[in-house]
# Entry
Amino acid sequence: MVFSSIIFLYFFLPIVFLTYYLVPKNYKNIILIVSGIIFYGWGEPIYIGMLIISILIDYLSGLGISKFKDQKYLRVLFLMISVVMNIGLLGFFKYSGFFIDNINNIFGVSIESVSHPLPIGISFYTFQSMSYTIDLFMKKIKVQKSFLNFATYVTLFPQLVAGPIVRYKDISDEIVERDIKTNDVYYGIYQFVKGLSKKVLIANNIGYLWTTVKGMDLESLPVITAWVGILAFTFQIYFDFSGYSDMACGLGRMLGFKFPKNFNYPYIAKSISDFWRRWHITLGDWFKSYVYFPLGGNRRGLARTILNLIIVWFLTGFWHGANWNFIIWGVYFGIIIIIEKLFLGKVLEKIPSFFQILYTFFLVVIGWVIFEFIDLNNLFIYIKSMFGLNNGGFIDSGSVYLLVSYLFVFIVCIIFSTPYLKNYIYKLCKTELEIIDHFRVIFIVLGLILSTAYLIDASYNPFLYFRF
Amino acid sequence: MNFQKIAIIIFFGIILSFSSLTVLWKKKDYSEAENKYLSKVPSISTENILNKKFMIDIEKYFSDHFIMRDDFIELKNNLEIFTGKTTINDVRYIKDRLLQVVPSVNEKFVKNSIDIINEFKEKYGKKTYISIIPTSEYIYRKKFPIDPGIIDQKQNIDKIYSGIDNDIDKINTVDLLDSKNEEYIYYKTDHHMTILGSYYVYREMEKLLEFEGIDFEDFKKENFSDNFYGSLHSKLNISSLDKDLVELLKGSIPDENVHVRKISADLVQNFNSIYFKDMVKKKDKYGVFLGLNEPIVDINTGVSNGKKLLIFKDSYANSIATLLYNHYEKITLVDMRLLNEPFEKYLNLDEYTQVLFLYNFYNFVTQNDIQKILIK
# Structure
């Protein structure tokens, strides 16, 4: 099921939340498990069994790791069961086609590729489950003995299919015992409607522009059209994904959970390293904790640090999709981050912050081109068009039309992807913060009604991060 | 009660009232505003759940029957226009009217259709004519402050005509209609031509088709409806638009002499008028011209001048036919979009003295049904 749909908003949400609030504490987790399975099964009925089995295996591995706390080999064995199963599921569903295609290409053989639809959310819930067994192995957390509590963690519907990647330790206490405070429900609702509006009112709107540009003849795109197009995607993916994260965090909070923050105004980042501390934060943390640090991080000399960074960024790219362009995209950022660590970071600090932001934004936008074109030929054609190296000229009436039609939406995008307006309002209202509460209520009502209007007439409502 | 509690109650209050009203409200089968049948309650079965059909259908069902659906859609459209969009749901909006977007020219279909028409002429040797009528998007192109990328229909029609054999007569109406663009020649909320637009096309045909057209003043003008929101309004519902006026131009042939026969695969229906006045109660008031589209429509006029015209056509021809029929003993309209059998099964081609291919630009460059004409 998708948060931004009529069925979720007007049927799933009220039924689940009212039941959840009304039942006694001991039953709340059961409501969460049942609703999580319905939520998941709505989109992937045939994979419910797989989800449940993978929960069971991770749960049992956890028991094993904690039971044999002094027998090193058994502990490693149980950890491997969990890791191999999770990576195996990912590998089978997400990457087998890619590997077979490449083996066929390189060795000139023709192994038959088994294609199966990618189960929604598999990239997210396998990573979440692994955070439990790995942390348990590293003795950072206590074992979860109750199967129901562990199942509650994995099937928690707000974060089940598209993140944020909530690690077990982030919510281990709340799974067992949580208070649902008025304050949390209120902020949760606000955050949910904020995310819904970002997704439905902004991301879908600007995304349609990108779809239009992408559908044109790429070789004859004027420079301006190419830039307008990729900027549209730049905003679409931010509002789409951060909107989803906001909805997830909001729903989590309404249920009594505090999920970690996933985005922090990434487009005002002052370097690429800074960008990745602000974009999909939970994924970066995951790779840092479970890949980069175990490899030795930056404590084993420069050469090893560089190698570790390349490995992490290769994997980060590959996590986004089983295609070469995602690998290039990841390594592209890895190389920039290495260069920043070596010397560029120090240079950047000396220039005005406006240029730091511009430098970062430019590289991020180029990154999105790599990210969006699975076909590498089209990727190069598009980049050439952006820099006037094709025959499309600089600007035509089509560029002007697109720009004028979407000018308002672009302005909205710029305002809401930066914190400046928000900070300004807070400054204005600093003596009377309850005014902001009044604004919030108006926002909740307007956001809900307008999003509903767009959802009812929705011909274009994709979720970008569902592909991963 | 504190402020936060009020906010929570408002949020759940809105959601619960919309969802319960949607469930309880009386359901409609058909949406007048959108001109479409609404989906029915999906059936639930293990198979439907496993292949997700049930989930997809029930989402569609709740969206189709959502309380105040039409108002929500209108709200959305007004907001889109407010933010500066001029193209929504493949409909363009300019100050006082809606225009159907021609997305692109399908060169393959066009070439195919040209070949078929040439082959048809060669095969049957009938006196053959073609007229491709521009659509309103092109005629009103200058009303846009910035060109949204409108396809040049004049250039395309010229190109199509240059591919048509010389012994087929071409009726070109682009310049004529262009010069009349300040007059009410296209409906504002529908993709068809008004009777006035049809009249200009009809007068442009008279020389080549060899009849003596009736002057505008000599027709009897009749108001059929001033309450018409057309097909484009169904796609882009904006209530601030004026409703369209549907007028008829009546010639001298008395209704009682006219005999209209509509033939489809399993049904023959007979009527005594070319005007289907029952359509006044329906949303699609353009239907007054020969009713809903049918594969074959015969109009016998009671005139005996030996002239019989066969028209391969789309719905633009319906209003033009109500003018042309004044000059023929018989007109037969064939809509290849709706016919999946050889047309000769339903009519005898020898009977006709002229054959006319009459299409609007949109259909000619986006559809491929003409190719079925020569399928045996």
